[in-house]
Design a protein that fits this description.
With 213 residues, the protein is α/β, with parallel strands linked by helices. The protein contains nine helices and eight strands. The longest helix has 15 residues. Bound molecules: BIS(adenosine)-5'-pentaphosphate (AP5) and magnesium ion.
Length: 213
């Protein structure tokens, strides 16, 4: 399975990616996670990404396209992958197509997890992530067993720095302006599959499996 997962910020891409990765046994490649890891490691790229992420803007294409191409060239992506949060504008989509064609790779599907704007700010502001393993929770919709502690590894849960209301609103605007046009781009390629992301966690995954059959 060679897949992309797209959708508005907070739509549940990362949450569903955990299920998809396990079910189809493919690596999950999230540009957001890669930038957060680089920030944590204090690399030059991490510092650069931070200055854009904290404003809810896109990290420049020169940086983003390069790290995705490097990652897709690794051996574990040979039989499949799930790209999450990339591409996010037309230039990235065209660069990805060029890379895939050059390497004889064909995408099986682009999954669009569709959720209306009104629900999303609440989802982002209430999100908590594990500092250690990255597992995602929500203070209302997906509570850990013990407040503020990860069920998987017992580490503290934290809020992403870009999960403030102001940044969330800005990220949604950037999506409408730059990422939404990609839906048409992939529809024209005949590989766009839309699922309703405003349902229970399990029902969203059931629908994803159904459209990928
Ligand atoms: P990124 O990390 O990709 O963030 P995003 O697109 O804003 O998406 P999120 O991770 O916020 O949402 P999600 O859809 O994964 O939702 P989740 O599953 O966590 O990017 C961050 C930044 O990095 C960007 O702003 C940009 O600066 C930079 N960047 C990344 N990629 C880039 C690129 N290609 N080019 C340039 N810059 C780039 O769920 C959200 C919450 O809702 C959770 O709390 C979850 O528990 C809850 N939830 C999930 N599903 C449900 C459900 N069905 N019902 C109720 N609650 C739910
Ligand atoms: Mg995510």
């Amino acid at each position: 399975m060679k897949l992309l997962i797209t959708g508005r910020p907070g739509a549940g891409k990362g949450t569903q990616a955990v299920n998809i990765k396990e079910y189809y046994n493919i690596p999950h490649i999230s540009t957001g996670d890669m930038f957060r890891a680089a920030m944590k490691a204090g690399t030059k790229m991490g510092l650069l990404a931070k200055s854009y992420m904290e404003k809810g803007q896109l990290v420049p294409d020169e940086v983003t396209i390069g790290i995705v191409e490097d990652r897709l060239s690794e051996a574990d992506c040979k039989d499949g992958f799930l790209l999450d949060g990339f591409p996010r504008n037309l230039a990235q989509a065209e660069a990805l197509d060029k890379f895939l064609t050059k390497n004889g790779i064909k995408l099986d599907a682009v999954l669009d997890v569709n959720v209306e704007n009104s629900v999303l700010v609440r989802r982002m502001v209430g999100r908590r992530v594990c500092k250690n393993c990255g597992a995602t929770y929500h203070v209302e919709f997906n509570k850990p067993l013990k407040d503020g502690i990860c069920d998987n590894c017992g580490s503290p849960l934290v809020q992403r720095p870009d999960d403030t209301e102001a940044t969330a609103v800005n990220r949604l605007a950037v999506y409408d302006e730059q990422t939404a046009p990609l839906l048409d781009y992939y529809k024209k390629q005949g590989i766009l599959k839309t699922v309703n992301g405003d349902q229970s966690f399990d029902k969203v995954f059931e629908d994803i499996k159904a459209v990928l059959k």
